């Protein structure tokens, strides 16, 4: 593989010093117009691209933001990353997305800021890691108290209150809940909201009717297939849409119709990007565009020192998206 063109390569062909090349490429008026034009032509011919790392060492800003996510596979994760990348690109920043444990890379001083979304790690790990960083951080699915961290999270309660209320309007009364990983803030927060709502409004303890779907299709599909085969439940409350998709698939294979034989609700509104649900799923929308805008604006304002480094929590509004997956009285 050929190595990238360097300033020294351009300097040799132009008959000038690497410093002169650097000045010319950065538009320094001390370099004559003729010399600048010659250097730019050589750089173009050699397909020269400046090193982000080298630029960062000079300016102390790399113009690169790092994002930690749990997985690249989720439709919701993909839509969220795309929205954040678009917001950053419009402001002249690049995005690097990491989906595994790379603490050494995070600490390598390559990035101007860090975004964390639903990354699988304990709160204690994040508290220790984030507190030790000298860059601003935005937590999108967790709440930390570090001075350099802002928590910008969705208001799960707002949409879940509407979704939980549908149970009281349905004639499907055997309800179960598919939840997510124990170390997921959204999974545990959504579950706690549902537990409180059903206990207060329906006098139902949902604890015996909880099933671990890991926010994933396969385990939800497997559990739903077993539960539907015994007709144990007819209302499936899924705390994300991927698990709801697993219930849909299981119902289809057993000849059951969603919205008639069983009711299903989800959370995340992934059907907005990928219409995989038939009939349309009743779910909750996380307002991805507003969420991404708030995350990027907050982070870059702190990168530019337009906002003080202080801990704060902002909630992004959510709303229920009605569909045809619930059977009413």
TrEMBL record:
<keyword id="KW-0238">DNA-binding</keyword>
<keyword id="KW-0805">Transcription regulation</keyword>
<dbReference type="InterPro" id="IPR001387">
    <property type="entry name" value="Cro/C1-type_HTH"/>
</dbReference>
<dbReference type="InterPro" id="IPR028082">
    <property type="entry name" value="Peripla_BP_I"/>
</dbReference>
<dbReference type="GO" id="GO:0003700">
    <property type="term" value="F:DNA-binding transcription factor activity"/>
</dbReference>
<protein>
    <submittedName>
        <fullName>Uncharacterized protein</fullName>
    </submittedName>
</protein>
<dbReference type="Pfam" id="PF00356">
    <property type="entry name" value="LacI"/>
</dbReference>
<dbReference type="Pfam" id="PF13377">
    <property type="entry name" value="Peripla_BP_3"/>
</dbReference>
<feature type="domain" description="HTH lacI-type">
    <location>
        <begin position="5"/>
        <end position="59"/>
    </location>
</feature>
<dbReference type="InterPro" id="IPR000843">
    <property type="entry name" value="HTH_LacI"/>
</dbReference>
<dbReference type="InterPro" id="IPR046335">
    <property type="entry name" value="LacI/GalR-like_sensor"/>
</dbReference>
<keyword id="KW-0804">Transcription</keyword>
<dbReference type="InterPro" id="IPR010982">
    <property type="entry name" value="Lambda_DNA-bd_dom_sf"/>
</dbReference>
<dbReference type="GO" id="GO:0000976">
    <property type="term" value="F:transcription cis-regulatory region binding"/>
</dbReference>
<feature type="domain" description="HTH cro/C1-type">
    <location>
        <begin position="6"/>
        <end position="46"/>
    </location>
</feature>
<keyword id="KW-0678">Repressor</keyword>
């Amino acid at each position: 593989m050929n190595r990238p063109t360097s300033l020294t390569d351009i300097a040799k062909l132009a008959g000038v010093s690497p410093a002169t090349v650097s000045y010319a490429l950065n538009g320094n008026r001390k370099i004559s117009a003729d010399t600048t034009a010659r250097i730019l032509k050589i750089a173009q011919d050699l397909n020269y691209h400046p090193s982000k790392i080298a630029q960062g060492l000079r300016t102390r800003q790399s113009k690169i933001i790092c994002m930690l996510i749990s997985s690249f596979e989720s439709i919701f994760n993909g839509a969220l990353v795309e929205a954040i990348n678009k917001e950053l690109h419009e402001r002249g920043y690049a995005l690097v997305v990491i989906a595994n444990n790379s603490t050494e890379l995070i600490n390598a001083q390559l990035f101007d800021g860090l975004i964390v979304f639903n990354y699988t790690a304990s709160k204690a790990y994040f508290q220790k890691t984030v507190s030790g960083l000298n860059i601003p951080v935005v937590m999108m699915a967790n709440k930390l108290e570090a001075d350099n961290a802002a928590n910008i999270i969705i208001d799960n309660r707002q949409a879940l209150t509407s979704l939980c209320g549908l149970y009281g309007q349905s004639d499907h009364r055997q309800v179960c809940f598919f939840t997510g990983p124990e170390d997921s803030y959204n999974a545990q927060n959504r579950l706690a909201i549902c537990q409180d709502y059903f206990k207060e409004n329906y006098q139902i303890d949902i604890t015996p009717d909880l099933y671990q779907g890991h926010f994933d299709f396969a385990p939800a599909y497997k559990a739903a297939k077993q539960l539907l085969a015994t007709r144990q439940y007819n209302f499936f409350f899924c705390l994300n849409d991927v698990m709801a998709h697993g219930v849909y698939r299981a119902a289809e294979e057993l000849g059951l119709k969603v919205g008639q034989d069983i009711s299903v609700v989800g959370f995340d509104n992934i059907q907005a990007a990928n219409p995989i649900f038939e009939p349309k799923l009743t779910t909750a929308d996380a307002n991805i565009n507003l969420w991404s805008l708030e995350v990027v604006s907050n982070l870059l304002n702190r990168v530019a020192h337009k906002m003080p480094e202080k801990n704060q929590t902002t909630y992004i509004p959510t709303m229920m998206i009605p569909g045809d997956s619930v059977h009413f009285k």
